[in-house]
Amino acid sequence: MPLHPANYWTHLDGKQGVDFIGKVEDFDFDFRHFCNITGIDAPNIKSANVRDENGPAPTGRSGYKYLSKMSSPAIGRINELFKTDFELFGYEVVT
User: Fold this and answer.
1) Cα–Cα distance measured from residue 70 to residue 30, given in angstroms and rounded to the nearest whole number
2) What are 12's strand-pairing partners?
3) Domain range enclosing 46
């Protein structure tokens, strides 16, 4: 299974080629924001799994749900593969 960093789909030659990039971990907030900027009425949906309706959940060591289950070499490999994504999309790199 080929695995591409997100910037493979959103950037070309280091330049962003799309108008909006949302994050799956903040889907509810980002979807509502997308609807606002495009003039689409967002549906009024309530989910029991929403962490914070006022904004995206913070990233960081406490925000990475499965980090404690990963080995140092696995974390290093992820940091290597997704280095550009971390920089472009504001994710915190952990060690």
Assistant:
1) 28
2) 15
3) 19-57
